[in-house]
């Protein structure tokens, strides 16, 4: 009880100094809990949606695409209408209804504006069935009654201001469907953002599937008292041909749909938790510094406690109890803030088009437990070293105010360990950069990152003495005596400066590493495009998931004047049997012969033009080496949904490329001999070459030709490069945004270190004021101290990050990204920005120091 009282008295005596440490714990716990609540809520939303839309038993073709797959020919796999009648005759069946569903569509309004989601959610077209009443209800108008009517979901109608009587155009591979809105249906559960349109059954069959009398699946409803499992068995018996159909109960269908979303949600969840972990790591330095300084400031008090009988264990326990209380308070507040973070993320996603209702807010019992456990454990572990150091103070040394015991030997051991770890990490990074295989290099890269990071943290105090002096020569000496005092203050306790700088170092190292990798990727891709791509224009889908290029759009492109040629490019699924008997599911690229001009590929042997001859193909050199293939050999190609061909290897292409690496080419006419027209994949990308001197006119004409098809973009090479740069830039901005949490915690560490340092130097500050140091000079001294500490952390972080990024780029060079580019503008901006971070962090401590009463400060012991 005495230990508890002592700890609480000390805690509340320094509550202002503990506040920033508590905020660091709060932010880290809030990010963890917010991530868990947000992803759990998304899971709940999708679970409810999938459960509501699934029939008691769903019958679909055995080879039907998954929920996250797109049919390459633009037509979902179908089953005959006769199967509906067969299923309806099974025992225990109340109703069996054929349904049509396709995601290979784009819906536009009368102004050719895409009605689809901007967040990656699909656009779904189908027929209106009784099964849809499970999840939808018609709230206005009526269901479509003919080919000129369409019904749309209420969320899409609200988002795009649609009303009954407006015209919509549904673009499918079989043609465009023009219809007016006859009704609006609302979701009974939360719609995460999909755009849904309903057609009458006959139109859906003809336009979405390409022929009448077929469906994509059958929705079967059970009679009262019949379980889904028994119904599934009865329907399977009625259908007979088990090899042709896939049957799923409501739970099985919902689980299958959930699995298709699971990988995306897991990646997002663990990525965000990873950034929360980085924030926790940075927070450890803040907490260690806080308790180290508080212990040092309570040296005499600890000596008195020891003198009157307190044991080392009691002193140690007293500090740990303070940490326990700090962690508990910060964690409890963090759990509550985490729920607010989750709600904020939901609102943000809703504003971007993904609807997430707070009614589905899911807070699992494990979330607050995990948040509390993490916050408390991290805080107590971080406080252990200062607590142990406090317990080692002898009573006589403490009463003399000698401070914590200095151990020069421990410092030398620490420096030696840090140097060894740094050297080991550097060797691992060098090995990764020299690796011949990506898998081996990745292991060394990971080891190098870990060892160099730990090594820099351990060796931080040693580096602080050298780096701070160099920075001071450049930055502080111009400020005269005030600058020299700031330098001495920063060097007074190298261990403290090293720990404070290390907190900032971690976040900035990751920023620098990712900047180097991102810039190198853009530079490598740009160089590859300049070297390999001969096409003037590239046409490809812009949405997500990407829609195949419909024939009517392809014809519009082919009719554009001023074009020398248009190249079709199709990825055809195929199983390849090499001459050595090895079977691989590689697939081939079926393209027009003009593609060899659009993409300049180097050949190891043979001529690429010959690969576009009759029953011929090319292979990549890695495949050729693996199976000892030479020009003239024949490969057995079993086309998916088609026949089998024996194609002659006419060329072997080099895989030293980043575009179409490993691709095997054949002529489209060759593929069309073996794949039926209705099974032939549609173009997922097309290329165009303008006639000499007509590039500008052709560019404008191509854009005009696709104005009616907003799901596709026309890009020249400059557009393509800029788009690639923008995509990588957007990804990096998201990462930088997540790393901002760690940097904020690091800034709090600088603030706390300075605030406690000011308290520690109260008498010294009073004496300096007494001999003539002005308030303005005092504040400047503290600001300069903060700046040099921030620049110290930035210099270490940026140097370390560039080393990581360089090693990572050398590893990526194995995949064709061979250009190393250091983004100096970004690096310099971050470095200069760190100085402003230091100025910001010093505002409050400098203000408080300037307000000190000189006499009271001198009288402080």
Automatic annotation (TrEMBL):
It is a multi-pass membrane protein. It comes from the Bacteria. Residues 275-395, 738-853 form the ABC3 transporter permease C-terminal domain. The chain crosses the membrane at residues 270-296, 319-343, 363-385, 415-433, 445-476, 497-517, 734-759, 784-804, 824-847. InterPro entries: ABC3_permease_C (IPR003838), MacB_PCD (IPR025857), Macrolide_Exporter_MacB (IPR050250). Keywords: Cell membrane, Membrane, Transmembrane, Transmembrane helix. It is found in: Cell membrane. Residues 19-237, 500-700 form the MacB-like periplasmic core domain. Belongs to the ABC-4 integral membrane protein family. This is FtsX-like permease family protein.
